[in-house]
Amino acid sequence: MSPGKDLLITALRPPLIALAVVLAVAGITWADLAPAERATVVKVLTVPRLALIGLLTISALALLGLHLHRVASATRKPALRIAEAIGLIVSGNPAHRVTPQGTPELRAIAEATNELAALRARLLADAQVSIAEAKARIEEEKNRFAALVSELDQSVLVCNRDGRILLYNAAVSALLVSSSQPDGMPALGLGRSVFGLIDRSLILHAVEAIETRRVRGEHESAHFVTASADGRLLRVQVAPVFAGGSDPSAVSGKVTSAARAMTGFVLLLADVTETIESDARSVALFQDLVEATRAAIASIRVAIEALIEHPDVDVPRRDRFTSIVQDEAVRLSAHLDRLSADVSERLRRRWPLEEMRGVDLLSLVSRRIERRNGVTPRMESIDSNLWLRVDSFTLAQALSSLAGRLRAEFSVREVRFRLHAGGAHAQLDVAWTGVPMSSETAFTWQNDAFTLGGEDSPLSLAQVMERHGGEAWYQRDAPSQTNYFRLLLPLASEHAASRVRQWRPSRPEFYDFDLFHHSNATDALDARRLSELSYTVFDTETTGLDPVNGDEIISIGATRIVNGRLLQAETFESLVDPHRAISRASIEVHGITPDLLVGQPTIGQVLPRFWRFAEDTVLVGHNAAFDMRFLQLKEADTGVKFQQPVLDTLLLAAVVHPSEESQALEAVAGRLGIPVIGRHTALGDALATAEVFLRLVPLLAARGIQTLGQARAASEKTFFARLKY
Amino acid sequence: MSKRVLIADDEPNIVTPLEFLMEQAGLEVRVARNGHEVLELAAAFQPDLILLDVMMPGLNGYEVCQRLKSDPTLRQVRVLMLSAKGRDVEVAKGLELGADAYITKPFSTRELVSKVRELLGP
Fold it and tell me: Contacts of residue A291 in chain B, CB cutoff 8 Å?
């Protein structure tokens, strides 16, 4: 039974009971009457009386109706209000409350409803807080991970299953940008396809190999070596990324492992050109050694055996054979000397020397000799800007051993360090005050293997210095009674020092994990939401306003939006030599004078690069029709066609603010609260347009325009769209 | 009539004692210092056996061997390759190109002499 009916019956109950009682009394009385009495009654009920009775009955019914109306208005309206209020609380505004009205029962219902709503609001708020906390935690972890990866020396690329790049670090850009397209255009960027950088078939083959091994429960990574565009050799290691990695049962066991879905892969890249060249040289060197040795020994052996087999050989021959033996032996020795010098030079270069700040090395050494040798270290004069290339471990051992021996044999309590640049090397002095050391002792100390407490090392100071390609010697400054060992150590290359100082503020733009959830492929672009598409926002500057009559592009600037983020680090900017004059009016707008354009690439060179930059994205421009006209007129000449969908922020702004007079970029940006800096350069305008576009997307969504298809349809309907270029 | 041996090597330090050993073994010996000389002498001197070094200036031993074996008038000449190149692939290459035997330097002279006798036959 519905609550409305229920209410009506409750309201009608008293008058119905009264009517029923009256009718019952009348009925019983009628039944109780004798026939004579009944006749009397019928007689009494004459026409006028019946009319009176009828009038009374009608009045009673009218009163009943009035009563019913009052009851209904006292209960139905408040009840409906409660129902509406509940609807509002549930679907729209959880903070809404019912005003208690009407009968006491209804008031009670209203109050109970309000309590329930309050409880619900609290629960919702709690849930929101938990969600926000969880999100913040994930965001923090993501940032920490991205920060970690971006600082790695190892080149790391993370891609989703379709090969879209979700993350890359600075090491990758250093490795690939120089080696990318011959025209120097980097195809590395978030949301771009990794197959533009590394041959698709190689990666797919590696992924297949991984899948095969997974099924067998084996090690899940694969690697291959490929050549970069500029001929360097890259070793690429491919490791899979699985969905739901936190599932503990998924960590081991081949059944669960095979069941996990691979959602992407990580590529670790290394430039192995030098390693491989060096290995090849080593093999060649070895080959050379073997063959030269064999040839020499063959001659020696034949000569010697001839002498042995034929002891009666004549004297000239005997002399000749003996001199052959000597000659070959000498040649062999010389060859071995040359070879061993070469090999040890290579070994020395392969020794793992690290780049380290000189000050850091000395503080490490100081702590060690203080703790282990009981010798007080002192920094006498240190050039704190020096970076060294050292094996810090063995060098610290050598210096600690030296300090220990000074203390044991010369009772030295304090050593002083000095560090300065000296030519191509760093001079590190370990100085002490005291009696002179004989040159024999100094020589012995340099060539004795270290003995460090219990630790025996196979190395001597001389060998450690040899590994560094350095030298060490003992010297004495007699007037000051200062003795010192001077060590010449290699300096780090320039860039090592600068690498540390240089921080990259743009680091967070190197990753976008939301791309993991995207599958590019099949959904028609028109059905995709504006907020999830990738865009190239661009602008051009031109020689004038009339492309049909020969005006040309002189500058193209563009930036990218991926997953609703403007990627400031991924921009395109190029001047173009138009091979024609520039109108005075347009020079006043963009300030590009003809002399700036001499020697710049032609449009035929720039457009293919821009096409690559814009590949797989939706084009966005302010008054894009104008720029597109220029591009389209070049299609026949350059063979480059821009066939992707185009959105125009001018039209979209008109959709959002139809009544505004100006839809010029400056006016739109002003309305949306975007400061415009660097206007009237192609890149500056492209960046401003990108900001405008990002602000327009939610405003369009509020008007029910959420997909690319809807945005294009709405654009076409605006007034401005009817103007044709 | 004694058998004829052509020694083909550019390295005098090994040619001299080899020449002596071959003469002591009763053979008639000539020496070639490079690949082209080998081919000329093979035709002019008509040796029964060539002791062929692989690493020679001009034509190397492999090429010389290939040419000898593809020339109908010379293909019956026995070829014994002597080389400091001792990897199995190099030995295989020599034999594939027609060498009758391949000996890696250094070698025992006694073994060399017996190998020469074996190749020359009775």
Answer: 55, 84-85
What angle is formed at CA A183 by the lines to CA A180 and CA A189, rounded to 5 degrees? 45
Lowest pLDDT segment from A115-119, A354-358, B89-93: A354-358
- The ranges assigned to domains in chain B are 4-120
Most confident of A181-190, A225-234, A464-473, A551-560: A551-560
Q: Is residue A453 classed as helix, strand or coil in its secondary structure?
A: coil
Choose between A345 and A602: higher pLDDT: A602
HSE-up of residue B12 (Cα within 13 Å, Cβ side):
5
Q: What is the CATH number of domain B4-120?
A: 3.40.50.2300
Question: How does DSSP assign A363-381, residue by residue?
Answer: HHHHHHHHHHH--EEEEEE
pTM of the entire structure?
0.47
Tens digit of each residue's pLDDT (9 = 90 or more) over A94-145: 888 888 888 888 889 889 989 999 998 899 899 999 999 998 888 888 877 8
Q: What is the largest CA-CA distance in chain B?
A: 38
A680 is an active site residue: yes
Residues of A in contact with B24 (CB under 8 A): 306, 309-310
Choose, out of B9, B10, B16, the residue to mutate when testing the contact with A (most A CBs < 10 Å): B16
Q: What is the DSSP letter of A164?
A: B
Mean pLDDT in residue range A548-556: 86
**How many beta-carbon contacts under 8 Å exist across A and B?**
70
| Residue A227, beta-bridge partner list | A233
What ipTM does this complex have? 0.83
Identity of residue B68: L
pLDDT digits (tens, 9 = 90+) for B35-62: 999 999 999 999 999 999 998 988 889 9
Shortest distance between the Cα of A501 and any Cα of chain B, in A, equals 53
pLDDT tens digits, A246-302: 444 444 444 444 456 778 889 998 888 777 777 778 888 888 888 889 999 999 999
d(CA A323, CA A300): 10
- Other C-beta atoms lying within 10 Å of the C-beta of residue A94: 16
**A329 CB near a chain B CB, below 8 Å?**
no
Which of B7, B10, B11, B13 to substitute to test the interface with A, most A CBs within 10 Å?
B13
Beta bridge partners of B52: B8, B81
Is residue A7 within 8 A of residue A103, CB to CB? The reply is: no
The CA distances from residue A422 to A3, A430, A491, in Å, are 99, 15, 10
Q: Output the six-digit token pair for A497.
A: 């020092």
* Domains of chain A with bracketed CATH: 1-141 (no CATH), 152-271 (3.30.450.20), 276-350 (1.10.287), 354-491 (3.30.565.10), 523-722 (3.30.420.10)
